């Protein structure tokens, strides 16, 4: 069934629910006989909706605060250098990978739609944005084939893989540079895979900084497909419900400009992915 899920704060309580007609949310207690405790618990169990649940009246989005969808069971799994033009803007043709390049990003770095990206100005002078499609795993599995991989997807969301480029160079690895507090905006919705009838159809990704287009790409340009990424990640490694896989970023990141155009205090970053929505965040210096 085509659905978009979200987590939110309303009248002093944390909850999750189903987006209705892009302007309201049907809370979990109206959707299930025995509601799961949170969105992760729903992804893990996926109970059936009550008959007539989708006809329920929702709470207007203007009355809620959208929160991080859930805290995943593991750190975010990232795929690096997955778009040829991004590889070229960061280095050279020789850097195009022949196998997936995998890193992790602390789950404690997650921040919600409309939340703050901290500049960490005392730690980095080169904070960059990366608009990405993220895959949400819905069923546990290991040693999967590419053909099997799609059945293990729950849905898709938007992720900003904020990266401190100077720390990336200094430490010769990605974790610290990509795991600063508030450096992983995600959301606002998780669109179920059934929302996209053709699993091969590409997603468009567009990133604006202060209203200026910086990135405009499509997942059709990925070096490694989503089924390939899932299959490779599952070799000898069990993927579990709620795992988040950030699939790489198209060209147009701040470092790719001459001179580089890194994020600064007061910036607004908005990432739109077709069929999912727009993730918007605000950059602020630490006080």
TrEMBL record:
Q: Does the keyword Protein transport apply?
A: no
Q: Where is the signal peptide, in residue numbers?
A: none
E.C. number: 3.7.1.2
A Pfam family found in this protein is FAA_hydrolase
Q: Kindly state which keywords UniProt assigns to this record, in alphabetical order.
A: Hydrolase, Metal-binding
Protein origin, superkingdom: Bacteria
The Fumarylacetoacetase-like C-terminal domain, residue ranges: 76-283
Q: What class of enzyme is it?
A: hydrolase
Q: Which GO terms describe its molecular function?
A: acetylpyruvate hydrolase activity; fumarylacetoacetase activity; isomerase activity; metal ion binding
Question: What GO terms in the biological process aspect are recorded for it?
Answer: carboxylic acid metabolic process
- Give the UniProt family note: Belongs to the FAH family.
Q: What is this protein called?
A: FAH family protein
The coding gene here is fahA
């Amino acid at each position: 069934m085509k659905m978009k899920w979200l987590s939110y704060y309303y009248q002093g309580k944390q909850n999750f629910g189903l987006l209705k007609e892009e302007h309201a949310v049907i809370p979990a207690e109206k959707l299930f006989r025995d509601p799961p405790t949170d969105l992760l618990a729903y992804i893990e169990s996926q109970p059936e909706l009550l008959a007539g649940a989708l006809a329920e009246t929702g709470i207007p989005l203007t009355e809620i605060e959208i929160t991080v969808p859930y805290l995943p069971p593991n750190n975010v799994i990232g795929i690096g250098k997955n778009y040829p033009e991004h590889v070229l803007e960061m280095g050279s043709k020789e850097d195009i990978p022949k196998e997936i390049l995998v890193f992790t990003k602390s789950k404690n770095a997650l921040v919600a739609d409309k939340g703050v990206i901290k500049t960490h100005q005392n730690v980095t002078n080169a904070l960059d944005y990366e608009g990405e499609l993220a895959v949400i795993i819905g069923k546990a599995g290991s040693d999967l084939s590419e053909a099997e991989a799609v059945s293990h997807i729950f849905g898709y969301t938007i992720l900003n893989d904020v990266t401190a480029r100077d720390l990336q160079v200094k430490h010769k690895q990605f974790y610290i540079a990509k795991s600063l507090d508030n450096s992983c905006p995600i959301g606002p919705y998780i669109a179920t895979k059934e929302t996209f009838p053709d699993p091969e159809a590409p997603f468009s990704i567009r990133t604006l900084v202060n209203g200026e287009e910086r990135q405009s790409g499509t997942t059709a340009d990925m070096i490694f497909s989503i089924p390939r990424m899932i299959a490779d990640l599952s070799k000898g490694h069990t993927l579990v419900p709620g795992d988040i896989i950030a699939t790489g970023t198209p060209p147009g990141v701040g470092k790719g400009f001459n001179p580089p155009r890194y994020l600064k205090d007061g910036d607004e970053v908005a990432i739109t992915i077709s069929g999912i929505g727009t993730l918007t965040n605000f950059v602020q210096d630490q006080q």
